[in-house]
Design brief:
The chain is mainly β and 177 residues long. The protein is 5% helix and 49% strand. Strands 7-8-1-11-13-12-14 form a seven-stranded mixed sheet. Strands 2, 5, 6, 9 and 10 form a five-stranded antiparallel sheet that branches.
């Protein structure tokens, strides 16, 4: 009954953040109005609340920049993205079988004090049981708005692309927000 929510960035974004002395070491996710209770007998979720996950360290291997891509990277359309945040939330099922949407905020911090490097606010982040929602792009240094591309009927992973990042080819029936 869970949905996985990921935020991941490019190696170019990591390099740019490092050059700006903004090496991110921690991240946090706040997501609004998600279920917090699950009935194993009926499969129903309830008790919706706003959740803020504790600030968590980012896997250090993203800064290794080895020739091989570490296990903490995600490949989408031949491009690697490095995880900044990963969380699991209970996901409800709607009558039409589609997932739900929730307002979400990702915050990225550097170690010192800790200082906020960037905040990404996402209205209506789509989630669905047993699927991953990937927020991808130059999340540490971007200043543009983002686009959301959801494959038709949520058949494959959901990818949210920040402007300036070329989106992969997708089903002509896909919905773009």
């Amino acid at each position: 009954p869970f949905a996985q929510i990921n935020a991941a960035t490019t190696i170019e974004d990591l390099d740019k953040a490092e050059s700006l002395r903004a090496v991110v070491t921690k991240s946090q996710l706040t997501i609004k109005n998600v279920p917090t209770q699950y009935n194993v007998f009926s499969g129903e979720v309830s008790n919706n609340k706003d959740l803020t996950y504790a600030t968590a360290p980012i896997l250090k291997t993203i800064y290794a920049k080895a020739d091989e891509h570490p296990n903490d990277s995600l490949e989408v359309s031949g491009k690697f993205y490095y995880y900044l945040n990963m969380a699991y939330v209970l996901a409800g099922e709607t009558e039409d079988g589609k997932g739900s949407t929730h307002n979400a905020t990702f915050e990225f911090f550097r170690e010192t004090q800790p200082e906020l490097v960037n905040t990404i606010n996402i209205p209506n982040l789509p989630i669905e049981r047993n699927y991953r929602t990937n927020v991808l792009g130059n999340l540490l240094t971007q200043t543009e708005n983002f686009r959301i591309i959801v494959d038709a009927d949520f058949i494959s992973d959901k990818n949210i692309w920040v402007d300036g990042v070329e989106a992969p080819e997708f089903d002509e029936n896909a919905q773009t927000y």
